[in-house]
Design goal:
65 residues, alpha+beta, two-stranded parallel sheet, two-stranded antiparallel sheet, elongated
Length: 65
């Protein structure tokens, strides 16, 4: 089983070169069994005093489906 456990996607990581769907398509063409998205969360993050960073996971999931 071959899985890439460290990938990033546009627009969530500054060092990414692909959107989520593009990364998944490339992984399938490369015969990877899976990928793990490990984003930096630079964008779409809100900060509330006393709270940890809040990330809109539902919106993020729609970008990689």
């Amino acid at each position: 089983m071959l899985i890439d456990h460290h990938t990033h996607t546009i627009p969530y990581s500054f060092d990414a070169r692909q959107a989520g769907f593009e990364l998944l398509e490339a992984a399938a063409k490369s015969h990877l069994d899976g990928v793990c998205l490990t984003e930096h969360y630079e964008k779409d993050v809100s900060y509330i005093a006393g709270e940890e960073a809040i990330f809109n996971l539902d919106r993020y999931a729609r970008t990689v489906r």
